[in-house]
Amino acid sequence: ETGVTQTPRHLVMGMTNKKSLKCEQHLGHNAMYWYKQSAKKPLELMFVYNFKEQTENNSVPSRFSPECPNSSHLFLHLHTLQPEDSALYLCASRGGAGSAGETQYFGPGTRLLVL
Amino acid sequence: AQTVTQSQPEMSVQEAETVTLSCTYDTSESDYYLFWYKQPPSRQMILVIRQEAYKQQNATENRFSVNFQKAAKSFSLKISDSQLGDAAMYFCAYRSAQTSYDKVIFGPGTSLSVIP
């Protein structure tokens, strides 16, 4: 819908599992973001990458490990999560010239349930 | 640190009427961007409108307009001629204009219902 795709769309995992979330943007942007969206809470910024370099780590627990191999792809590796990590994980990208480059484009999100 | 506040967790509006969503923010910077994003139920978050702080003129996009009061640090969204498709969560957001600054700060959101 907006040039940012996320897979999988839904994920159920146990606390001992290892899984990865994938985000891909087809917009030629240079910055990519991971957000956590929990019910009744504000959107929480997790990580930001700009030109493949991590520029923000918002005190995220080490059980979340981001990877940005290039400007089009962003991963979030998950390991030994807790039930309170269940949430919608949103990816966004940003880039381009001028003030229009300030707009973030969001993916549809991955709905994660940790059992 | 910058913060964004949306004091109305929920709002409702009759179809075809006008509604205003409130947003206030706190910053010591003079140059920044403000945004309103819309997140319909089970659909992707999309930009509604964007305002550059250095511009005095309020941004407008069709039925959507903002009232940007820089001194008061207020950035409200007005939706005119409300339609059923306007029902969604609306998030106000702030980003510094410093080129080295990537963080975008979101408010807690306002859930808007449109009554037929």
Q: Which quaternary structure do these chains form?
A: heterodimer
Structural class of chain B: mainly beta
Radius of gyration of chain B: 14 Å
Q: Uncertain spans of chain A, ≥5 residues at pLDDT below 50?
A: none
Could you tell me the mean pLDDT of chain B?
94
Fraction of residues in β-strands of chain B: over 45%
Report the uncertain regions of chain B: none
Biggest sheet character of chain A: 7 strands, mixed
Shape of chain B: globular
Quantity of strands of chain A, as a count: 11
**Element pattern of chain A in H and E:** EEEEEEEEEEE
Measure the end-to-end span of chain A.
30 Å
Backbone structural class of chain A: mainly beta
Give a verbal description of the structure.
The complex is a heterodimer of chains A (115) and B (116). By secondary structure, chain A is mainly β. Chain A has strands spanning 4-7, 10-13, 18-25, 31-37, 44-50, 53-57, 64-70, 73-79, 87-94, 105-106, 110-114. In chain A, the strands form two sheets. In chain A, strands 2, 4, 5, 6, 9, 10 and 11 form a seven-stranded mixed beta sheet that branches. Chain A has a four-stranded antiparallel beta sheet with strand order 1-3-8-7, with no helix packed on it. In chain A, β7 and β8 (73-79) form a beta hairpin. Chain A is globular and about 45 Å long. Chain A starts with a strand and ends with a strand. Chain B has 116 residues and is mainly beta. Helix content of chain B is 0%, strand content 53%. Chain B is built from no helices and twelve strands. Chain B has strands at residues 3-5, 10-14, 19-21, 24-26, 32-39, 46-52, 60-61, 64-69, 74-79, 88-96, 104-106, 110-115. In chain B, strands 2, 5, 6, 10, 11 and 12 form a six-stranded mixed beta sheet that branches. In chain B, strands 3-9-8-7 form a four-stranded antiparallel beta sheet, with no helix packed on it. A two-stranded antiparallel sheet of chain B has the order 1-4. The model of chain B has no long low-confidence stretch (mean pLDDT 94). The chains are: A mainly beta (115), B mainly beta (116).
